Amino acid sequence: MKPLFRAISALSVLAIPAAALSPALAQDAVPQAEAPPPASLQTGDETPWIYEGSDVPQDKDWLFGEMDNGLRYAVRNNRVPPGQVSIRVRIDAGSLHEEESERGYAHLLEHLLFRESKYLGPAQAIPTWQRLGATFGSDTNAETSPTHTVYKLDLPAITPAKLEESFKLISGMIREPVLNQANVDAEVPIVLAEKRERGGAGQRVNDATRETLFAGQRLANRLPIGTEATLSAATGEAVNAFHERWYRPENTVIAIAGDVDPVQLARLIEEYFGDWEGEGPTVPAPDFGDPVAPAGADPENPVGELAVLVEPDLPRSVTYAILRPWRPVQDTIVYNEGLLLDALAQSIINRRLEARARSGGSYLYAQVQQDDVSRSTDATFVSFAPLSDDWQAALADVRGVIADALVNPPTQEEIDRERAEFDIAFASELEQKTVLAGSKLADQIVQAVDIRETVAAPETVLNVFRGMEERFTPQEVLEHTQQLFEGDVLRAVYVTPDASDGDEAALRLALNEAPQVDGSARLAAKSVSFEDLPPVGEPGTVVSEGSLGLTGIPEIEEVEFDNGVKAILWSNDAEPGRVTVKVRFGAGYRAFEPEDAPYVALGEMALVGSGLGELGQEELDRLATGRKMGFDFAIEDAVFSFTAQTRSADVADQVYLFAAKLGMPRWDPNPVLRAKAAAELAYDTFATSPNGVLNRDLDFLIKDRDPRFATPDREMMAQVTPEGFREVWEPLLSEGPVEVLVFGEFDREATIEALRKTFGALDARDPIASQVVARVPSFPDAGGGTTVLEHRGDANQAAAVIAWPSGGGVESLRESRQLEILTQLFNNRLMEAMREKAGASYAPQVVSDWPKDLSSGGTILALAQLKPEDVPVFFAEAERIAQDLSTTPPGTDELGRVTEPLRQLISRASTGNNFWLYHLEGATSDPRRVALIRTLLGDYSQTTPEIMQLLAQRYLGARSGWKLAVIPEGQELATKLPRGGAQAPEMSGR
Asked: How wide is the angle at C-alpha 648 spanned by C-alphas 643 and 652, nearest 5°?
């Protein structure tokens, strides 16, 4: 693990005092005090609780324990990131454990545990964890599902004292929360705000789909969010009864992975949870129920419950499911081999369905997926989106492809292709085993417990898979395909914007019709090899190479080729098996003319798919088979980028693909037409909620209605053609400088040679025109009052945004980092005002955007989803906070609650290659970025109250904020505060 600390030690050269670094960074692990060994560790020949009844080899990195009170735990040492401990406490109770009058209680209880408990006063959990360096929402979080509730803590820079304190606090939260009426009354409005934000057409469809597909089972109407009626009627006594019934040691599993001796972790678990006893007798879990066919159903035509849902703003979609009862299994190797065969069978069908869609089929997408849902059903789901109102044709096409898979074995080539994909995925997991974050390892235990199965080490998964070679035959894959579609219960939902499309009788008739076997989507045998591909051009020449000049990490180097392409390389073994390749080129959003707007979004959707050279999407997929490759494309403020996560063996081929896209692009029309259809189908969905309207219009409005940032409507998209797409994008691929970044475990000399043959072989690039370089988005005038947009969602939903212009560019980058501290101060205060005190918004947020590649164009933006009547409350609170920050310096404790989590966030992130890549990208054209890394940690974590006040005066107090409100169609924006003033707790959510 020593190389992992190379990046951390480099931080010590930054211009900050040594004392500012986290103590955990200066030591290999937390020193442990002598203590009695844990009494409940399962050692020797004893089978750990999670492996009982299984022959899956034990993952020896985990230590397991089961205490006398029934609580089970799993602990392991993990040093990724260094100094962190990830704690997961899982309670085996979710929304399926609620009685009818308790709907929503499991989730409400999750909230209440963070409100007040034995060692934490009212509303003190969040600030307390912040003082310990944990970021709210990412490091401290929780989730409630139908089957469990999980509390998640990722604690950075751990010390023995912090670890002890954390165990004390979380034990108090789990065992002894304060569940009085006052706390219930304070938290219910927040949960109702969360429920309100999830509402709208999409949620209505989700609810109706769940009720249809899981009819007769608890899962049909037991959403974790609950109902407004049951939540509004909640009492402290009733919630406490739910806590006593289910929060018991025998229902609890604790999983911890971190940079601490696991025996010490086990000792702490036993110390703080060993004397925990449940209140009253143990209550068995309720019967979740089985999917049952309607009485008198015809076994030959097992179509059961159906629903046709009319939502004018949603595109057409069909989902049908074959449902079987869920039963616990013996998690054996043979069982897992069956799961792998099931997964491979699904992959073959899905690849065929995708091939049909790509070639101009009747549907936009289609997918088959088997899933064990909430320990309620073992189901196979088929979902697709018709391209027109002829949904019957799309259904017939999808079922025809599936029917072929059910009667005809796949070819061996198809099987081998999917095997190669699985093999590379499992091999990559093994390669990266030593750099898997402790949080993910702890989550894996939680997931295994939830589905009542074991956890397997990556080498076990790979060995089992590779040991199945004799089972990967056409006949056995056919048998597993057939099993996926066996079942006595078939249910379906059709969503349509037009009630005249069809009814339940039409849907039943279509599903009862025997499908026509269609083998045309089978993939023909065709070999594609990188060795057969043409060269990008004449290999270039390296004209210079040497260290980039980053103090402490001289291995990060810059290489320049004679055609002007520059590369930044860092070959290191800090993350075994991982290599990130990023290519930056061109002018980004600056490159487009106003009339190009429809082609901007289509570029992100279709540019890669349109191919390169003689290779279309299908050929590109074949090339990537058995390799770890990627091809993400993004349009950034002032640059375009390709990005991929790959591995050392595939770096040369990965850079070939990227370079070939620039040097010899292909212009296949089908991906453009498919992307156009998707954009047209999706456009109306933006209007279904305030958040959808923000996604559609905020970027456009906050950039002063710059057409380049507009979401094209149906009329604009109707004018789009593949020829127009090429006309816009072809010149952009040959314009502007190219920078290639390769960070990770790779062979330096081989990679430079691969770059010489690919990017070094590109033709000289066309310069970016001066008028393009000068294009910087404007900020709207705040003097015109509040901009008001309407949505067609629920009448109780609204959104509000207030924003101020900031800046951009590298010259003031250090100031932008300090501005991030100010933004987090603003965020904490807005959360306190709008969530904790008013209960008006579930998750208000404040964000700072500072474009490094532009000279200006940055913003500070606050937003929240609310009730329509609370929009003026939000504006008043945001403006009050902005003015308070401008007139009064923040207190030391308040500042520390922001700077300590930021310090830990930077310290942890700096152990990964992507952190360095992100901060060094663009350095070949602007070397100042290299020097600015030296002050990065201090800039984000060290400041003074006076600096914060000065920044607030400069960016928040110097001008009024620009305001945007999104309200329901037909309503008017309230212009006055509700009775009680801006900070009155009773103003909303009650």
From this structure: 65
Residue type (1 letter), 513: E
pLDDT higher than threshold 50 for residue 10: no
Residue 571: the pLDDT is 98
Token pair listed for 446: 């939680």
Strand blocks (E) in 434-541: 489-496
| Cα–Cα dist 892/901, whole Å | 14
Q: How far apart are CA 827 and CA 905, in angstroms?
A: 17
Structure tokens at 407: 């009667």
pLDDT value, residue 573: 94
Residue of 670, 662, 655, 632 lying closest to 732 (CA atoms): 662
DSSP string, 45-106: TPPPGGGTT--SPP-TT-EEEE-TTS-EEEEEE--SSTT-EEEEEEES--GGG--GGGTTHH
Contacts of 854 (CB under 8 A, 6+ apart): 637, 638, 776, 777, 808, 809
Cα separation, 821 vs 941, in Å, equals 8
Which of helix, strand or coil describes residue 885? helix
pLDDT band at 526 (very low <50, low <70, confident <90, very high): confident
- Hey, what are 285's tokens? 């879990």
CB 291 within 8 A of CB 325: yes
Token pair for 398: 């999808």
User: What is the DSSP annotation of 851-881?
Assistant: -TTSSS--EEEEEEEE-GGGHHHHHHHHHHH
**Which residue do the tokens 């300090």 mark?**
818
Secondary structure, 3-state, 801-826: EEEEECCCCCCCHHHHHHHHHHHHHH
Closest CA to 965 of 824, 836, 797: 797
Place of tokens 């049951």: 230
Q: What burial class does residue 257 get, using C-beta atoms within 10 Å of its C-beta: 0-12 exposed, 13-18 middle, 19+ buried?
A: buried
Q: Where are the alpha helices (DSSP H) in 491-608?
A: 504-512, 597-606
3-state secondary structure of 571: strand
Q: Under 8 Å CB-to-CB from 647, ≥6 apart: which residues?
A: 428, 431, 577, 578, 579, 628, 745
840: tokens are 């008006």
Domains and CATH numbers, the chain: 62-183+213-273 (3.30.830.10), 303-512 (3.30.830.10), 555-769 (3.30.830.10), 782-987 (3.30.830.10)
Q: Are 465 and 339 in contact (CB under 8 A)?
A: no
Whether the Cβ atoms of residue 951 and residue 815 lie closer than 8 Å to each other: yes
Predicted TM-score (pTM) of the model is 0.94
3-state secondary structure of 840: coil
> How much is the pLDDT for 12?
29
Kindly report, residue by residue over 174-209, the tens digit of the pLDDT: 999 999 999 999 999 999 999 999 999 999 999 999
Q: Are 572 and 744 in contact (CB under 8 A)?
A: yes
How many CA atoms, within 13 angstroms, populate the side-chain half-sphere of residue 76?
23
In 3D space, the residue among 141, 154, 261 whose CA is nearest the CA of residue 905 turns out to be 154
Listed in order, strand segments (DSSP E) in 359-405 are 363-373, 377-386
Give me the DSSP letters along 750-794.
Answer: HHHHHHHHTGGGSPPPBPPPHHHHT-------GGG--EEEEESS-
> Can you tell me the distance from the alpha carbon of 946 to that of 892, in angstroms, rounded to the nearest whole number?
11
For residue 383, what are the β-bridge partners?
319, 367
The pLDDT-based confidence of 524 (bands split at 50, 70, 90) is confident
The DSSP code sequence of 117-132 is BTTB-TT-HHHHHHHT
Residue 726: C-alpha distances to residues 275, 416, 641, 910 (Å): 70, 36, 18, 40
Only one residue has tokens 């950039």, namely 703
CB atoms within 10 A of CB 16: 19
